[in-house]
Amino acid sequence: MRQIWIAFVLLALSLISTAPARAQNKIEVVASFTILADLVRNVAGDRAQITTLIGPGGDAHVYTPSPADAKRIAAAKLVIVNGLGFEGWLPRLVKSSGSKATVIEASRGIKPLEAADSDHDHKDHNHGKAHTHDAPFDPHAWQSVANVKVYVGNIRDALAAADPDGAALYAANAADYLGKLDALDGEIRAAIAKIPAQRRKVISTHDAFSYFADAYGIAFIAPQGVSTDAEASARAVARIIKQIKAEAIPAVFIETITDPRLMRRIAAETGAKIGGALYSDSLTDENGEAPTYIAMVRHNIKALTSALGN
Ligand SMILES: [Zn+2]
Questions:
Q1: Which pLDDT value is given to residue 123?
Q2: How is domain 185-308 classified at the CATH fold level?
Q3: Of the CATH numbers 3.40.50.1980, 3.40.190.290, 3.40.50.300, 3.50.50.60, which one belongs to the domain with range 11-180?
Q4: Per-residue b/e over 28-63, b at no fewer than 16 CB within 10 Å?
Q5: Looking at residues 175-195, what average pLDDT do you find?
Q6: If you measure from the C-alpha of residue 137 to the centroid of ligand 1, how many angstroms do you get, rounded to a whole number?
Q7: 165-189 average pLDDT score
Q8: How many angstroms is it from 16 CA to the middle of ligand 1?
Q9: How confident is the model at residue 229, as a pLDDT?
Q10: pLDDT-derived band of residue 122, with 50, 70 and 90 as boundaries?
Q11: How far is the CA of 293 from the centre of ligand 1 (A)?
């Protein structure tokens, strides 16, 4: 009887001691936007409690942090941001929150490209007003898979430094995910290799694909005379038609032309294909077509190759 009691007490003690320990082991991590949060999730697994400041469809460039964000930052042990001027609002937020979190820039160590001069707009955040990046570099480095491998290494190292007990797990998860990224990079290259070289160009209002263009050899040519913050006029469309013909551009990804008649006119007069949506700065929610980084890249590749292949 006594032995049973001892066993019971020992069991109870072990339950008491492991439950809080497990909760304590969860490291509080804040990621600035959805793409980073997905990378952190792949490296940290269940060991981190991940909070994303800017959710699906949000625009980090023009974000205004809320008091709730300050609370999230204050509670975090680790804050992971893109850097390269993407989150210009962040330093003030960290300061005002009084947070003691370590802040790391996931892009540290990549070779940055210079920022484009033009304004910048995306399908998933038509912010209604033109804006330029205030930093000299283009922040959209995640559009190259090789860069994302650098991000993953930085995230792994930051997690291990903040939570040394999890270091082995982070290393194993990162190695696994890096393998998936290598496969993804191969997929992109194989898909683009099937497109005839002279067809590897699109007209696009996206300024977010310089790293993609640089890594994979698809040119993103800005349409002439199309403002990013207003519906394109019939005159602007006439100029685009001229440009497509002159430069023999096979496909058009202009999401700011929302009038289907104008897009049909471009297609009819030039023979160019009208491409679907490209995701640049944000993932979709779980039910969307780009809920993870890998799904986002695959979606974009499919949109590009189906418009450019013949
Ligand atoms: Zn952007």
A1: 36
A2: Rossmann fold (3.40.50)
A3: 3.40.50.1980
A4: bbbbbbbbbbbbbbbbbeebbebbbbbebbbbbbeb
A5: 98
A6: 12
A7: 98
A8: 47
A9: 57
A10: very low
A11: 15
Instruction: Report the C-alpha gap between 56 and 290 in whole angstroms.
Output: 10
Q: Tokens 């058009």 sit at which residue?
A: 252
For residue 120, the CA-to-ligand 1 centroid distance in Å is 7
Give whichever of 109-113, 232-236, 279-283 has the largest mean pLDDT: 109-113
Rg (CA), the chain: 23
As a whole number of angstroms, the longest Cα–Cα distance in the chain is 93
Q: 88 pLDDT band (50/70/90 cuts)?
A: very high
Q: What is the pLDDT of residues 217-276, one digit of tens each?
A: 999 998 876 665 566 677 888 889 999 999 999 999 887 776 778 888 899 999 999 898
203-224 burial by CB neighbour count: b if 16+ within 10 A, else e? bbbbbbbbbbbebbebebebbe
> Is the Cα torsion angle 30, 147, 162, 47 positive or negative in sign?
positive
Q: Which of 101, 131, 98, 102 minimizes the C-alpha distance to 117?
A: 131
Long-range interactions of 294-301: CB distance < 8 A, separation 24+ = 294/180, 294/181, 294/184, 296/35, 297/145, 297/184, 297/188, 298/184, 298/187, 300/212, 301/187, 301/188, 301/191, 301/192
Which residues of the chain are in CATH 3.40.50.1980 domains?
11-180, 185-308
What is the residue whose two structure tokens read 């430069």? 247
Q: How many A from CA of 119 to the centre of ligand 1?
A: 10
Cα(133) to ligand 1 centroid in Å equals 9
Segment 28-61, tens digit of pLDDT: 999 999 999 999 999 999 999 999 999 998 888 8
